[in-house]
Write a structure and sequence with these properties.
- It is built from nine helices and 19 strands.
- With about 425 residues, it is of the alpha+beta class.
- It has a domain at about 35-50 and about 305-390: conserved putative lor/sdh protein from methanococcus maripaludis s2 fold, CATH 2.40.420.20.
- The radius of gyration is 48 Å and the shape is elongated.
Length: about 425
């Protein structure tokens, strides 16, 4: 019995030794055939880019008119719809005009009385003119007639002015809109007493198309831009330098583009910022006064700019921007660069890289400085990856031969001690 057990152990060892040798040979072949890691790189080529600054801003009405009464009286009617559109000259409110119409009638009567005195004075002067030549009247009487005629003319002119003033007051009793635009809520109701020149407006009319956007730019940023333009680092783009693009509060881009109008000549001492004003079309009244927006201004154009995708730039422990560069011998090296700003999804690199450098953009986690890699252009790598993904089978299906023929190790592990599988592996001497 003991002899049979020993023979079974010996047979199992004979079975396992070839498997161990085969595994060692396979590992040695795999180690000897190891290929360099494949990484995706881009070859840097300078190009022109627009330097765009995104600045905060607020919308402001193009024109604002505070409607105030120019005569005193009781408000009789409100003739506009709150929140609606009004035209210049449209009547908004009606103030009781009774007293002003009575004053107009009295002024017109005074004018007629002055005109009657003028007729009498004129006739008297005309009658005295031939008589003074014949010495039929005294010189004093003639001079009085001439003076009375002139005084009557002055009284007529004054009476006409009184009539015009009374007529203006009647017109002012009809409160008219000074501009076209959108009117807000009514600040007084029917029956309210209003006075000429009061501080409280009756309503507010704002012209919203077009509309202003006031943009704040720091004085330090403005000085930096001026220095770069003076040094030739940036060039003015005469075609697009005044174009402004808005991003609304919900993150959407405003469909209309605006134009930069002017910048303030002084810096706000409280904020240290300069206000820039842009004007935008607003046909759908989408922009309302007081809205917060983000404005993108094209400040200039940089020639021969070096751009690197954001995914290819990392930070070291000191916070410096770094990239991995592949040299002519396909060896990886780390470089510290100066990343100035983000434009779209790329970093503008101002120091540390040059045209023709190959920068690793995919596979940074698989390599380290000093190792040799197999660089592939990023576009080719993306195409190869998509092809491999589309051709990969859904699940691995074992071949019929492998499914039907188990490996010796599996047969030895899964078979019971007294099964036929183990018995087949034992020499005839053990069975005897």
């Amino acid at each position: 019995m003991t002899q049979r057990i020993d023979l079974r152990v010996l047979a199992a060892l004979f079975t396992l030794v070839p498997l161990v040798l085969l595994a060692g040979c396979s590992e040695s072949r795999q180690g000897g055939a190891q290929q360099p890691t494949e990484v995706a790189v881009i070859t840097l080529a300078p190009r022109s880019v627009n330097i765009t600054d995104e600045l905060p801003g607020r919308t402001t009405a193009f024109r604002v008119a505070e409607v105030r009464p120019q005569v005193s009286g009781i408000v009789q009617k409100r003739l506009f719809t709150e929140g609606g559109e009004v035209r210049a000259g449209q009547q908004l409110l009606q103030i009781d005009p009774a007293s002003y119409r009575a004053a107009l009638s009295a002024a017109e009567a005074a004018l007629k009385r002055a005109e009657a005195r003028l007729v009498a004075a004129k006739l008297l002067e005309e009658r005295y003119t031939p008589l003074i030549a014949a010495n039929a009247v005294s010189r004093q009487d003639y001079d009085d007639a001439v003076a009375e005629h002139a005084q009557a003319q002055a009284e007529v002119a004054a009476a006409k002015a009184q009539v015009e003033a009374a007529r203006i007051n009647v017109v002012y009793s009809q409160v008219l809109s000074p501009i076209s635009g959108r009117i807000g809520r009514a600040l007084v109701t029917e029956g309210a007493l209003v006075t000429a020149g009061q501080s409280q407006p009756l309503a507010l009319v704002q012209q919203l198309d077009p509309i202003y956007v006031d943009i704040s730019q720091s004085s330090a940023q403005m000085l930096r831009l001026q220095r770069q333009l003076a040094e030739g680092v940036l060039q003015k783009d005469e075609q697009n330098q005044a174009e402004v693009i808005l991003t609304l509060e919900d993150g959407r881009q405003y469909p209309e583009k605006g134009k930069l109008q002017f910048s303030e000549v002084s810096v706000d001492p409280g904020t240290g910022a300069v206000v820039l004003r842009a004007i935008f079309p607003n046909p759908r009244r989408e922009l309302l006064p007081g809205m917060f927006v983000r404005a993108q201004l094209i400040q200039g154009q940089r020639k021969e700019a070096i751009m690197v995708p954001q995914r290819g730039v990392t930070r070291n422990q000191r916070g410096e921007a770094t990239v991995l560069v592949v040299d002519a011998e396909n060896k990886v090296a780390e470089r510290v660069v100066a990343a100035d700003r983000v434009i779209a999804n790329e970093w503008l690199i101002t120091r540390g890289l040059a045209a023709g450098d190959r920068v690793v953009v995919d596979g940074l986690q698989k390599v380290r400085p000093g190792v040799v890699v197999r660089p592939v252009e990023a576009t080719e790598a993306a195409a190869a990856k998509s092809t491999a993904t589309s051709s990969e089978p859904a699940a691995a299906t074992p071949s019929p031969a492998s499914a039907a023929t188990p490996s010796p190790a599996a047969a030895g592990e899964n078979a019971a001690p007294g099964s036929g599988a183990n018995t087949a592996a034992v020499p005839d001497v053990a069975r005897r």
